[in-house]
Design goal:
- The chain has 5 helices and 5 strands.
- A 5-stranded mixed beta sheet has the order 1-3-2-4-5.
- Strand 2 (20-26), helix 2 and strand 3 (51-56) form a beta-alpha-beta unit.
- The protein is an alpha/beta fold.
Amino acid sequence: MATTELTANDFQKTLDETDILLIDFWADWCGPCKQFAPVYEQVSEQHPDVTFAKVDTEAEQELAAAANITSIPTLMAFREKVLVFAQPGALNAEQLGGVVQAVKDLDMEEIHKQIAEDEQNKESAPEA
């Protein structure tokens, strides 16, 4: 599957409808972003079961701000609507493939259980 452009208008819908979503936050003026783009495209072709999206941080400044993007390129990975990976910097094909496989291999039942426990602990914690 080729990469898809993601905007603030379709971000939530894409997140809701996708099991695994990788997002490359980039800008046209960014040299490392341009070097990473063909690697991202190449790896996307090897994983048709994963949605590979790109966010142009210049065109989508509010979305980039909401994602706390302070450096580009930044790669984020979501699995079952949970942010499971976020890292600035360009990766090579082997590293990116490793990230994709690690996200696929996650035990999401355990992660959802941990999130629920964390939420419960927050609710029962005394106010400071």
